[in-house]
Write a structure and sequence with these properties.
The complex is a heterodimer of chains A (about 250) and B (about 50). Chain A has about 250 residues and is mostly helical. Chain A is built from eight helices and no strands. Chain A has one domain (about 40-45, about 65-235). Chain B has one domain (about 5-50). Chain B has helices at about 5-10, 15-50. Classes of the chains: A mainly alpha (about 250), B mainly alpha (about 50).
Chain lengths: ~250, ~50
């Protein structure tokens, strides 16, 4: 019980999470649509043509946010998996389960759009560079976690096994991030870092950051929606279909 | 704005063949994911109601 008088623990039950997520999804979705629309507008109509790369550089407005999301989502999934293992908390495992497909989707997008950028800029669709290879391994990790879960019938064992796999694999995220510094890669270094001023025009950075925020909001909306699927699939309750208020279900517990 | 015409915009300075598939596939992936989650939710509710 917190000092504010709100019992936060009641939101940690699937019965309370289901309607709460249902109410949050439209807001995240609306903000995502708005941000992505603004990001695309700035990216295509305000940001200037790059001097060296021409207009091919505009691919980064989808490539960089997708690549960032692929790594962020992996870390968040691993954190939920760790909490699940530590506290033996069912909703945490469900959250990890809900995040994995979205993470895999963004990893695929990062690889695909990177390839579309690489062909005109480097002259190759693919090179076995440290950044590209470690990102490809991330895709295999996501797929492995999803397949491992679906291959175990006992839900509790599936939760634990996929959580361990997710936690062990988190080592790849810093490898992906620092690969451009640790090895002499064809992939360029970071253009935007926390410690230094961006090495890009202001409007380009704006478009990229707005797109990333939009992808964040999209990820919140879609993983919460998948969380609701997982809850219905895993928990038996008489009335998922009909709307229920949070106090009602909290009382019913 | 640097585009003189609609055709110029779609040509993307000669890189349209690379730029548009990138954004198109991104839109397809994200739209497809939303559709998949939507259908999964409906299917889960339907099979739940049968219990």
């Amino acid at each position: 019980m917190s000092a504010t008088g709100i019992n936060w623990f009641k939101y940690s039950s699937p019965q309370a999470l289901y309607p709460l997520a249902g109410r949050m999804i439209p807001w995240f979705a609306a903000v995502a649509v708005g941000l992505i629309a603004v990001g695309l507008y700035v990216g295509f109509f305000v940001a200037p043509t790059d001097v060296t790369q021409g207009d091919a550089y505009r691919i980064i407005f989808v490539h960089v946010p997708a690549a960032w999301m692929s790594m962020f989502l992996y870390v968040i999934m691993a954190i939920w998996a760790g909490i699940g293992l530590g506290l033996n908390a069912r909703p945490s495992f469900m959250m990890a389960q809900a995040i994995a497909p979205t993470g895999a989707m963004f990893t695929f997008l990062a690889l695909f759009t990177g390839s579309m950028w690489g062909k005109p800029t480097w002259g190759a669709w693919w090179v076995w560079d440290a950044r590209l290879t470690s990102e490809l391994i991330l895709l295999f990790q996501y797929i492995g976690i999803i397949l491992l879960r679906s291959s175990i019938d006992d839900l509790r064992r599936a939760d634990r096994a996929s959580a361990v796999l997710a936690l062990v694999g988190v080592i790849n995220v810093p490898i992906i991030y620092f690969s451009v510094r640790w090895w002499n890669t064809l992939h360029q270094g970071a253009s935007v870092t926390i410690t230094a001023a961006p090495t890009m025009a202001g409007t380009m950075v704006t478009a990229m950051l707005v797109m990333m925020l939009g992808f964040w909001m999209y990820s919140f909306a879609v993983t919460l929606a998948r969380m609701r699927c997982v809850i219905v699939e895993r928990e038996r309750q008489p009335s998922w279909g009909k709307p229920a208020s949070i106090p009602d279900v909290a009382e019913a517990r | 704005m640097q585009w003189g015409s609609v055709a110029e915009f779609f040509a993307m300075g000669g890189y349209g063949l690379y730029v548009w598939p990138s954004f198109g596939v991104a839109a397809l992936c994200m739209g497809g994911e939303i559709l998949a989650v939507w259908r999964r939710h409906a299917a889960a509710l339907a099979s739940h109601d049968e219990l």
